[in-house]
């Protein structure tokens, strides 16, 4: 069947290129006048002759049955509310039951039948049916010039199922004004835009069937109705008048959710059955092909811009510029006026012009790669536009390939084939995805698993493409053999092998495996709906419920506080309040049976001096007589005392406090959970369970599900102003009330323009957060982002806060946003050392005090920094379990390896893997149990030495080693273990014996270790240095600095690090990544571990020196910090006040950090910068086998000796099991340490 267009005086069939099967089309009837003798089945039959003479319907659309719906909502036309209207309901199916909201009795229609009903009330009329129906609304007119019902109109009402994302109003007459009714399916009514601007809409009802009806008047001309939320759906009814002429229509086009036509996408190309073809190359270009129809007006919507095209480019504008700009419609905001520019002629001639002509000349060369194209396609327009773009962009010539591509494609479209022009420009080469091959003239309709035999008459039969090799077909984005294709689906769809597919009604899910389809019946929960969200069809729980869609239960509610600050209440009312005091965020209003009462207070402070902006400084929970505080410094306090390690567990109150950077969290056993974000400017979210709904009060609202009563004062009164509401919830004395909210974006146009650019990623249809748009409307968060950036312009501190909380809301609604921070560089989360960012990590991570993490974590999907495998959290840093601190009996934290002995010396405990491990002990008969300094222990009597458990006379050589160990060199002890172990296990066993894997310092010691290990391949204590930024090594008189190559980020003025050494740790702060005459050198533990100093150049006299006896330890990591800001350098032990500081009157810029490499003299070919000794001994000797270290396959990090030839070294996998040699050093000070038996 061929399409037919009916028009006045013309019923000819249009000229198409060829008949097309299964064609869909729309029939238009226009210029139809109705007289008393004309009867139309579309119009009510009770119209008087007098009325019919005045009734003119200039445009009507006959809709196919396939586009009818089952739910409708009607309201009287704006301005005609008192006249009433008539509806006609038509059915095409048998036993159609139609229900109206103003009647309890359903009406039953048979196929081809209809009924009429006169409506006089002014409210909303809802119509539902079990089968698709067509609804027409005849709006009666007001009395005009004594003529009753003198200005009526009729329209086909769009069903609730028929909606789109925006609409364009076309004037049928040159009317003075029009009345618009919008049925908004989803999205905030406040974000409904007219011509890109926020305007006032009259909301006819708060809610019906999940949608809202809005009305307003609009002036004459073209208008665009859109929504700030890119995926908001609506339908539009328009009623316009000019004197007594009337017209009405239901929008321009309406689309079913699943059109019956076929879509073919390749390269990518979209083709419709009615002949439209669109090709987009995902760069700069689009091609639109239309069938041969005369004077067809087309509307093409691409992103936020709609361009109206006509086959005859006629328009009142005379120039091309005027023509183009007069037809552009921007659905986000009013377009700025286009100003033509001539980059090749800037008055004196562009310096880029000669080069642009030279680069573009290939398009016109008679012997060039486009020679065969010159006779069929005029190259001059392409040449001129090529020069234009290059004049504007050089030295960037990336657009050159684009112009060549377009001319080459035009050549192919005209039947010729261009030469290999890509060979003339290396930058234009095409890299095909893996498995596909390049073809300069391939088909746009390739063979696929769904269609092995593509169209022979493909409308795009020759274009550059990456295609599957012969013998394979396209399966999604990969090429497979036909035998590896997936499964056809019962509804005509297709599933790739290994793919699971959900059917349209979510009653069946099928899994394709090896060409066999296995289907399972499923049922959506009664509180869920079958929908497509984030590109996935599934059962999704309704708002207010949570679950997997097949099981849904009441969901908790959330309150968010973020930005300047903005408050999003439990019932999703967002407002801004800039108070600078403490306020009750939420509290129980009276007693609630069975659950505790609580109060949450937030304290705001000024963000920046000179600005009105504030932010959330701290948040406080009071419950069961205790107070818990989370603040912006990243600290938590309980009853005023700081929490030293996480998780903090208060079993009496049912409270757990965790830290998972950047979030501090309070979790309770009664369902209330608080998350405070220390990244940025302080923000929080509060979660409450259903048993508190309707029983709360404060800035977060009452959680009763009603938005109209959100601004309730402590006395129970309801106000309309959020500022007046919030001011009443302050805590204690507040010197000033918060001001009425300003409008910074209106006051500062420059700030507004910058804010729109920075915040647009929130609402971009294909942006980093677009996967959330089906779950949560982003427009309130976008508006909050605009406000915040305008209010602190030109700063951007708040830019990411809105996005972060939008992502949080998306996750609560069931969405799973992708890693958006990687696509918004300004929002990149910088994690502490040894941790990586994850967009869905647990809020209860593995820690030193909880190595397995908490079993039941209510916060299971957060944006946090996560430790890698083998590491756990020690507060905000990732460490190995062996580096964990331990809680001491006094409530503090002690470093790993710390020994504690009880008051009567009957047991000794050592901090191992974050836990004190204790042993029973007995002091030697030559020792006494006493307190020396601040340490209780067994101490050998005078004239004796030892560990207090065993004491030997000073003249004896006993006591230094285990009897099975060897002491060949000045009292050092060496032990050989033949039982194979991994490097890590071997090192741990050596440490338990108060030593470490042997560090070899010369050829004599290497020979001794070789003999001791009987020539077997054995572990020694060297390993590849994978943490050079924290492994500080001692040096001797000659030393050099190794610099971290990455420059310190702007705004970072503090560094933390660990040192394990006997003496002399040196740190450099330099403007460059090398030694420089102007630099700072910090010496810690110099002068044989007795003093520390700050110098203004390497090796020069000290600016300040302080006594720091025994500040370093050869067996323990000691943690330090250095701050450097405005010329002042401070050095201290982590958690303590600085022990050394100095202010430089002429500060040096500090951009790079350096540290000593323990080299004695010139490095030569030494691998000291690559390997270290576990003992932190200087790397002054090495004995590698030729060709080693090789780091084979990138995973050889530990050193073995006796490889192939005795005494030679090799790097090997650390997980391998080998014998090993331990050493206890000869240093007497080392032997005097507190040791376990």
TrEMBL record:
Residues 969-1101, 1152-1223 form the C-type lectin domain. Residues 515-553 form the EGF-like domain. InterPro entries: C-type_lectin-like, C-type_lectin-like/link_sf, C-type_lectin_CS, CTDL_fold, EGF, IgGFc-bd_N, Methyltransf_FA, Ser_inhib-like_sf. It holds the Pfam family VWD. Residues 557-737 form the VWFD domain. Keywords: Disulfide bond, EGF-like domain, Glycoprotein. The keyword 4Fe-4S does not apply. This is Putative IgGFc-binding protein. It comes from Stichopus japonicus (Sea cucumber).
